[in-house]
Amino acid sequence: MNRCHCSVKIHNLSVKKNNHIILNNISFTVNHSEILALIGKNGAGKTTLLKAIINSISHNGIIEFFNSEGKKILNPKIGYVPQRLGFDKNTPMTVLDLFCSNSKNMPIWLGHSKKRVEKAKEMLKKVGAENHINKPLGTLSGGELQRVLLAFALDPMPDILLLDEPLSAVDRKGVGTLYSVLISMREEYHMPIILVSHDLGQVYKYTNTFVLIDKRVIETGKSKDMYKSKKIREIFGFDPAESGDII
After folding, report:
1. pLDDT of res. 246
2. β-strands 6-17, 20-30 pairing
3. pTM of the entire structure?
4. Per-residue confidence at 1, pLDDT binned at 50, 70, 90?
5. Kind of pairing, strands 60-67 and 209-213?
6. How many Cα atoms within 13 Å fall on the side-chain side of residue 5?
7. Do residues 160 and 8 touch, judged by C-beta distance below 8 A?
8. Strand 78-81 to strand 160-164: parallel, antiparallel, or no bridges (unpaired)?
9. Residue 63, CB half-sphere, CA atoms under 13 Å: how many?
10. Is there a contact between 31 and 192 (Cβ–Cβ < 8 Å)?
């Protein structure tokens, strides 16, 4: 069953650590069915911003979630795909074990319910990773692992999906495939997606809007217009209008 449409409003979000300002009064809105690219140089605060949205770090400011009728969603479901997953490559845990560990109180070595196995297969199929269900996590390639993490983030189906450089370990062919998955998720469930990326060519091609930050919001706009941005040229050190990837 498709969840209600969701929009997210971030107002004056700030993060400080040891009196050091990491984010300063960040404000922007992500509408339902929108893929927003969060871009900026290394150290600009992109990952910190995602962690603030999932409430895993202390922050000031307001983050509000609304349904299509403008009513607040008090307990939104947030799907989050980290930039990398830290784990022992030699772990015997399989993809199925990962899915089932999130939904049961008994040890995974006692087996998995038929219902949970079918649910895992369903979510993995959505991202084209159903063939990996019995593979140990440590044997997956970067692209395969990102697909599995995306499927994991979609269970239960979230109101908003956050992805932190999910394509950094994916080859060129896999990038297009994963973006196609994200677009289909947006179209089917109307969820807003915030995607951190350094690949401006892919941002231009697959996202709707962008927010450029460097501890604060530098610029926002439509992705199709980003090649006109002087701020992007200044921060990334090239002219987007002269980039073969973007035009």
Report:
1. 47
2. antiparallel
3. 0.87
4. very low
5. unpaired
6. 11
7. yes
8. parallel
9. 17
10. yes
